Each structure stands twice: as structure tokens, then as C-alpha cells.
Amino acid sequence: MVILVAYSAWVYPFEVAFMDARPKGGLEVADMVVDIFFAVDIVLTFFVAYIDSRTQLLVRDRRRITFRYLSTFFIMDVASTIPYQGIAYLVNGEVREGMVYSLLGLLRLWRLRKVKQFFTRLEKDIRFSYFWVRCARLIAVTLFLVHCAGCLYYLLADRYPDRDKTWIGAVIPNFRQESLWIRYISSIYWSITTMTTVGYGDLHAQNNLEMIFNIFYMLFNLGLTAYLIGNMTNLVVEGTRRTMEFRNSIRAASNFVCRNHLPPRLQQQILAYMCLKFRAESLNQQQLMDQLPKSICKSICEHLFLPVVKEVYLFKGISREAQLLLVTKTKPEYIPPKEDVIVQNEAADDVYVVVSGEVEIIYFNGGSGNIVPCNLLTVAATGNAGFLEDLLKVGMDPDVGDSKGRTALHIAASKRYEGCVQALLMHGCNVHIKDAQGNTALWQAIAARHHKVFSNLYHIARVSNPRAGGDLLCLAARRGDVDTLRELLKHGLDVDSEDHDGATALRVALSEGQADAARFLVMSGASMDKADLDGDGSAPRQTTVPAAELRELVKRREVGHPITIYDSPASTVTAASSSSGELRQGRLQGSARSDSAHWPRVSIYKGHPFVRNHSSEAGKLINLPATMEGFKTIIGEKLKVDAEKALILNGEGAEIDSLDVIRDNDKLFIVTEEHMRMVASMDSSVALSHTSSVGSAVSVAHVI
């Protein structure tokens, strides 16, 4: 029936406009067949039961069905089915034409209500996508209105007395002689361009009647466009509603955390819970269960939870009735990682049965008196900085390790738990402890690219071990880890730092045969002198890097930072050369210099070298001037500091008071009084933490 209704809605406006409401040939036969089908449908409606909208019961009483149909749609259905021109032909013996018969024929459009009912049923049918059904409905409405407007606009031109002064007659003279489809396509073309507000102007109104029609048609298009855009907007927004609500909730939670200054661990728990809730929303069956009757809910719970409850040791041996009572009170719950399920000394209202996943017992004092000892390593692995600090305050050893030699600091540094790292440092943990693989917490932090944790640890390590940076560089060179070497140098470590044995990273890389690491260190400015090569200037025998390649790398590096030396009669310029004849990096000697020379370039940074990190202010690359006064003037201009009161330090923290000790490509740090106070306060806090940790341990021992 829907196909027949669509045919009627399309063909009758077409027949009225282009055929004077007199179908010919196949269209006439098709119209008669369609009318017969709708007449049969009227008869069958008297025998079709319906659902009462008030009682929601199926009505099968013949009298009630007949009365309902006669009092609602019967008259309009009959009026839209009667062949008026056929009846006139039978009565008068001729086919009548005129506006009256055309208007009566428009009653066939009443059948469109069946299409509306059809789309309404499809939208409620779960077998079909609501989105695509709604789109099909909007497309059908748009096409029907375009068709009707085009037919009516042509009808105005066809009935106008002066056909040359019509919208189509001005473009196509004698348009009635043209093909039917050319006229129809022209009408649809005008209708679509006007509806979409394109309006090329090639087909436009020529008389007052057409102008009036255009006015009302364009006003109607305003409402139609708003209707289409509103519906499509609702469809698109509804499809992304969950994601939008999730993002809004995340934003609100982040603002709440920042406004109330909640600790990082609590912030992570809030965000993890909200993310899990979003992912598991489709799995949440409690909302559906609340809508179902109790009998169905009981059967569902029995099917879902009874096999799980029966296997729990706590409920073994109880009757089936008791098990069924338990499962009716059971509901699923999804818990994100690192969530505290049950906290000690808090009254528990629920019993949890672990179906999938793992639960870790951090602290438990069983009723039998068996105490499961609390492990600092386990607490550090969860990132619970508050609980970790409480355990440290009662005197637990922060340097206890596991079977692999890993301490709590190793674990916290590798997982970037800044709160746990700070708690361990404040209680005097040893940052130099190595695990079974020779890794310190510093190595764990830089290997995992946790730069802020590494900066905090490195500052503490430098206080007790000035060669901590050299140890790290040599360890990375020994392992051939170029990426870690690059990260260490980004933190401002001197590439020529020495380890506890007095070896540099380049020396270690050459000795261990780590060719890639050696090449990287040479290109990063490592000194060949400090590498302590063999007596003939070649690399150690273990290396796979030939001496010629090393010299070539040095030359290539110097090309990137050239120092051009010109002879001057007013001064004598000397440059010490190595035994191999290559020019060493260094300062130009002499009191006078040529103006055309390219002097050494150095990098200057604001801040103390021990406390700078990757997020600090960027440095400046400058040409080294001839005098210290000129150097301080450049420092003041580039870094906006009072250079006269500032100290100039190298990467090792040594003060520089002469330009003669500065080499090309050196990194220099400008330390103001504010930076010195910051370093002094951090050193005092570290010393205080050591004192407090020792004091707490003594007091606990005294109580015991």
C-alpha cells in the first residue's frame, strides 16, 4: 500500500499540471488499478481489529470496529477513492474538465497519512536503524514538496493568458510544443534551485501571479529548511551525546580537583573511575533490571550469579533457598585499577566476590591473629603516597628491597609516582642503591622518561655524590643506550663528567665497543683528551670505531662550530695540537684579537646547574666576547639579570672568574642571589629529612 500511496502522491499533481487532469494510455489504466486497490482496502478495514488507545486492549468486536471507522477516516477514504471524472462520463457521456474536478482529485493526497503511519512504525521497529529511517523520511518529504511546487508553478504558466510573459515562456517560446519531460525537468530544476536558495536567475517570475507564488514559496522554504536542519542536528547530536556528556563530566571533575587542591593520587582515582564508567556503561544492567518485574529479575539473577555464588567457599554448604536469596541481592560492579575497595577500620556494608581481575591485599589483620606484613614495595606500586608516608612515619625501612634488589624508590621512580618519591626522599631513602641489574632509581626514572622525577632525584644525588651524573652517563654508554644518553644531556649533564673510577662516558663507550654511543658522544662535544686514548692517539683496542673515523667526527663537529684563527702582528696566537696533528678545542691566547675572527660560541642558561630541568627557561647561544665586562653585559641583555651580582658556573658547579678557562661549546649557568637561596633551602630540607627519619626510627625502637 505504501508504494501505491507514493504513486498517487506523485502522479496526480503531474497529471493536473501537465495533462489537464486527463491521464492517457498507461497512466489511465494504472490510476484505475490503484483506485480499485484502495477501494478493497476500505472494505477490509471493517474487518481489521485495532488496539484501544485508552485500555491498550485488542478490540475484535465487529460493531465497535465499524463504528470507529465510520466516525473517523471512512468519509475521507471514500472521497479520495471515487473516480469523479469517470462518474461524470457515465452521467453526461463526456469527460468533464475544470478546476472543480482538479480540486476533487487532490483528495487523493489524503492517502499520504498511510505513508506517515508507515514511517512511524519503522521508527519504533528495533530491527531498523532509527537514524536511517529518519533520514529516509526527511528525504521523502523534501522530494514530494519539490515535485508539488514544480507542478504548481508550471500550472500557473500553462493557465496564464499571455504565455510569452511566463517564467518558462520567456525562455522557451511555444513551450507547450516541447516534450513533456523537458517541461517537467525545467519545473523541477526551478523548484530545487529556489528551495536550496541558489536562484541562478535563468528561470524567474515574469508576471504578478508568479511573483506572489514565489514569495509564499520562499517563505515556506524558510520553515522547511529550519525543519530539516533541526532534525539532522538532533540526529547528529544524539549520536555523540554520550561522548559529549563524558567530556563535560571529565572537565567538571578536573575543575573540582584543581579548585579543591586534591592530591594527584585522588585525582587519578576520580578520572579512572569516570573513564571506566563510560566504557562499562553499555554493560551496566542494573538500570534495565530496575525496569523489569521482580519475577523476571529473580530468574535473570539466578542465571547470571548463581553459578558464581555456588563456587564461593564462604557460601558452600548452605541451602539452595539461601543461595537464591543471595543472588537476588547481587549486582555487578566494575572497579578501576588502583581503587581502594575496602579500607581498614571502615564498616563494610557489602561482600565482594571477585569474578575477574585481581585484588591485592596491602594490609590485613585476620581474625585468627595471623598478620600479613605490610610491604612498602606493594604500597609504592599502587602509588598511594599518603599510606606510604604513614608507614614510613612508624619507622619502616625505606631502603628495604625485594628479591631483585628493587627498593620502593625504584618502583615509584619507574612508574612516575611523584608523591611516593617525595615521601621516600623526605624520610631519607638512599638514592644510590642498585638493584640486581645495576640500576639505580635515577636510571629507572630517566629510562622511563619521567623527567620531573629524575630532576628531583638528581638534585638529591648530587649532594651526596658529585659524580652521580658521570655514573649515569657511563652506565648508558656501557649499555650502548643512545636514547638515554640523549635524554641525560638534555638535562644539562656534562658530556665529559667522570664516574667514580675517573672514566668518561666516551672512554667507557670505546672500551666496551659501543660504536653508536661513541659516535653520538663525540658529536655531542665529548673531549678526546679526557677519553684517555692510547699513547698513539688511537682508540682502545676493544672499540669497533677506527681512529680515523674518530678524527673525522671531530672535524665534522668543529665544522659545525668553526673557530677561524688569523695571524696578527700585534699578538701571537698559539694552539696546542694533539699528537695526531688535529686542532684541539680551546681558547685563543693573547691580549689582542683580530676583528674578523670567529670567537668561541657558548650557551648561557639562567639558574643553578643542579636544579635546572627540561622545563626550565631556554638558554641563549652567544659568541664569547674579548673581555669579562663585555661578557657580563651580554648576559644582562640576553637573560634580563643583574650580571654584576650573579655568579658564572660551569656544569660541575664550579665558579668561573676568567674567560681563559672557557672553551668553545661550553655550557655556562648564570646564578643570581634568588637561585642561591633556592639551592640553600633545598639543601636544608634534605638535611632536615635525614634528621627526622633517624629520630623517628629511634623513638619507635624505644617504644618497642
UniProtKB/TrEMBL annotation:
Extract the SUPFAM superfamilies matched here: Ankyrin repeat, cAMP-binding domain-like, Voltage-gated potassium channels
Ranges for domain Cyclic nucleotide-binding come to 314-362
Q: Name one Pfam family in it.
A: KHA
Q: Where in the cell is it found?
A: Membrane
Span of domain KHA: 601-688
Q: One GO molecular function term? A: voltage-gated potassium channel activity
Family, according to the entry, reads as follows: Belongs to the potassium channel family. Plant (TC 1.A.1.4) subfamily.
Listed name of the protein = Potassium channel AKT2
Which species is listed as the source?
Answer: Triticum turgidum subsp. durum
